[in-house]
Automatic annotation (TrEMBL):
rRNA processing found in the keyword field: no
Protein name per the record: C4-dicarboxylate-binding protein DctP
Family: Belongs to the bacterial solute-binding protein 7 family.
Transport among keywords: yes
């Protein structure tokens, strides 16, 4: 039986019993929190987890214990989401890449070149559109979003040659996540997309299964992916969104005071994670350069080529798959956000 079937078979029982720690401390609530990135405070996911743990444990006097399972210790991305749905683990921090597998409308977040800056993204994701998305996600999956942060803007890395324009991606096998929009984007930009699970990226680069990948510089450096790469092109095609999600049955089992503590800890942890990513992105470029990575920042004309090739076809595909409502709502929210925060 597959992990998915096992999880679904035991979901109800597990969700009901998830918070009992053990005979030694029958009253203690245990929240097992999984994430996918390196366990360093330079990573948004881990900084979120650590701040959340310290605040929740401190403010509940130890009545709630948070156990962090970082760096894919709880399995690959899909498995971590499924385990959180079942209540095997109660909280997971995961990217938007696999969200469409659980909620098809999440494909809207995979449209490339959406956000011109972090400020625009947060205006959208913290506003009415983000709230609507979080509610729809919860209804579809049973996972409540505690906070949305990011891993930075995704850009292209490769081990073969400099990439200054989409034409330079021709012939390169580029790792993508298991997301149709990401796959279509790489194809439209002349590359050859190869969807590979996050937990297998390092070995795929090491063994030459792929020639490159698209990831935020800070995340790539922390995961040591740069050890098998030579070139980075800062085309910033996707804003890599990460969400902290808690099993809804688990959340509802908490007392009102505990819910308030969890909510406040999540709010603070989200702000810390966002700031961590901003600082790490800037520091990582220097680290990558020192490690021998050749970094190229496209000119405005070159950037326009990436956007004009990568955006329209993917947006059309997403509209065909999920309809116009979610796409139109997102585009309207972006237009309002750009007007509110000004041009970057």
């Amino acid at each position: 039986m597959s992990i998915g079937n096992l999880i679904r078979a035991g979901a109800v029982a597990l969700a009901a019993s998830t918070l009992v720690a053990g005979a030694a401390s029958a009253q203690q609530t245990v929240l097992r929190l999984s994430h996918t990135t390196a366990e360093t405070m330079e990573q948004g996911s881990h900084s979120w987890a650590v701040i959340f743990k310290e605040m929740v444990e401190g403010q509940t006097g130890g009545d709630i214990e948070v156990r962090i399972l970082g760096a894919n210790a709880a399995g690959a991305e899909r498995e971590q989401i499924e385990k959180a749905q079942a209540g095997i683990n109660q909280i997971t921090l995961n990217s938007e890449i696999l969200m469409p597998s659980f909620f098809p409308q999440a494909r809207v977040l995979g449209i490339p070149f959406l956000f011109k800056s972090d400020a625009v993204a947060w205006e959208v994701l913290d506003g009415p559109f983000g709230q609507q998305f979080a509610q729809a996600w919860r209804d579809a999956t049973g996972l409540r979003m505690l906070g949305i942060f990011n891993a930075g803007f995704r850009s292209f890395f490769n081990s073969d040659h400099p990439v200054h324009s989409p034409a330079d991606l021709a012939g390169l096998k580029i790792r993508t996540g298991e997301n149709d929009a990401h796959i279509a984007m790489v194809r439209e930009l002349s590359g050859s997309p190869v969807p590979i699970s996050w937990s297998e990226v390092y070995t795929s680069l090491q063994q030459g299964v792929v020639d490159g990948m698209e990831n935020p510089p800070g995340l790539a450096y922390a995961m040591k992916f740069h050890e098998h790469l030579k070139y980075l092109t800062l085309d910033r095609h996707l804003f890599s969104i990460h969400a902290a999600m808690i099993n809804e049955a688990t959340y509802q089992s908490l007392s009102d005071d505990q819910k308030a503590i969890v909510n406040e800890a999540a709010k603070t942890a989200t702000l810390v994670a966002r700031a961590t990513v901003l600082l790490d992105e800037r520091h990582a470029l220097g680290d990558l350069e020192e490690a021998g990575i050749e970094i190229y920042d496209p000119t405005p004309a070159e950037y326009a080529q990436f956007r004009e090739l990568g955006r329209p076809a993917v947006e059309a595909m997403v509209r065909a798959e999920i309809g116009d409502d979610w796409v139109d709502a997102l585009m309207a929210a972006i237009a309002e956000a750009e007007a509110a925060v000004g041009q970057p």
